[in-house]
Amino acid sequence: MSLFATFNSIAFVVIMMIGLYTLIARQNLVKKTLGLGLFQTGIFLMYITLGVRDGGSAPILQEGTDLAYSNPLPHVLILTAIVVSLSTMAVALALIIGVREEYGTIEADEIATIDRAEAKEDHEA
Amino acid sequence: MSDPVLLINVILLMIAVGAAIAAMWTRDLLGAVMLMGIYSLLLAVEWANLFAMDVSYTEAAVGAGAATILLLTALTRTGTREKAGPNFHPTALLTVIVTGAMLIYGTADMPRFGDPQAPATVNVAPEYIAQNVGKVDAGEDGPENDFGDHVPNAVTAVLASYRGYDTMFETAVIFTAGVCVILILRPLSPSARRETAQSQEGA
Question: Do B92 and A86 touch (CB under 8 A)?
Answer without folding.
Answer: no
